[in-house]
Design a protein that fits this description.
This protein is mainly α. The chain is built from four helices and no strands. Helix 1 (about 30-40) runs antiparallel to helix 2 (about 50-65). The radius of gyration is 13 Å and the shape is flat. It starts with about 25 loop residues before the first helix and ends with a helix.
Length: about 100
């Protein structure tokens, strides 16, 4: 099942799996994702399946914007990314996550 997005240079070039490693530690994206995943596990106590879904989504998002620092991604780019997910038949709950 390829959920890749291919609009305006945004896209997922590979599928992340629940066991995928996070982006390179000490990279801006990797550090943020690792911190958020740890927060979901420890503070929120979410189920392993839910945490895996968040991780997969964040890895895809980070890969789509890997040429930019996290703070450099604009609101318009994020909205375009989300619209492309919706256009590619993702369920509303997956897009909302």
């Amino acid at each position: 099942m390829d959920r890749g997005v291919r609009s305006q240079g945004l896209g997922v070039r590979s599928k992340a799996t629940p066991n995928s490693e996070l982006p390179t530690p000490n990279s801006p994206w990797g550090d943020l994702i690792a911190q958020f995943i740890q927060f979901l596990r420890l503070e929120r106590g979410l189920s392993p399946n839910t945490v895996s879904a968040y991780q997969r989504d964040l890895l895809q998002f980070a890969e789509s914007f890997s040429s930019k620092a996290p703070g450099a991604v604009t609101r318009a780019e994020i909205l375009d990314y989300l619209m492309n997910l919706k256009d590619n038949a993702l369920t509303p709950s997956s897009v909302a996550r």
